[in-house]
């Protein structure tokens, strides 16, 4: 099996793009896991599960809890608004574009989390129930913030690295593993079927290596690794968010706020550095 590698310049671009998505994906998944667990413990509903919003709204409506149903449906609407605003702030570009910056949406997300953190200090119970939904504004803000974040790592052709909910990520992991297993077994079977004598069996090691190469190619290991790290990061964030909320209430959101501010600052500095490099190149010409 022959493998064709891209040129050095292209390889560097691919590595940078992958490492950037891996870094941002894992950090933002951690943030989302933490925020989601805090939202669930604080309001009784997850803030980033669009399918959950729709289901809960339908159930509440069927039980004649119309305002509660409207609250949950509104959260879905705010999630969509957040994603739309990210697309506007990024000027329609995607994370794969060279000159794109994600500083604005992440900075805005940090501001929104700050609003929720300090706005909920004086409340001990913000659970959304059929007779208590007076502080749903904080719930909407968190849903809006998660919509902002989830659209940040959008890629070309509509695909994206999901950071606020893991259903699609878990599906991608399962599909990659299943595809790798099928193609690996098929490759191994084809080699065994073509063996005509015992001498061919001496090449069993080579056959095994070829099968492993097929598994590596078909599973797109770099993507599989990205999805696994994203899923683990989300889980770690959720666990930390749970323990943090039980001990510090919404104050635990200060952690993702600091993380988002750091990322935003780094993106701004990196953006200015690139602009300066381009200006220096133009001056030399």
TrEMBL record:
Q: Which InterPro entries match?
A: DUF1275 (IPR010699)
List each coiled-coil range.
Answer: none
Q: Which sequence ranges are marked TM in the entry?
A: 22-44, 64-90, 102-124, 136-153, 224-244, 250-269
| Sorted UniProt keywords | Membrane, Transmembrane, Transmembrane helix
Species source reads: Silvanigrella aquatica
The UniProt record lists the keyword Ligase:
no
Protein name (record): DUF1275 family protein
Q: Which PANTHER family match?
A: SLR0142 PROTEIN (PTHR37314), UPF0700 TRANSMEMBRANE PROTEIN YOAK (PTHR37314:SF4)
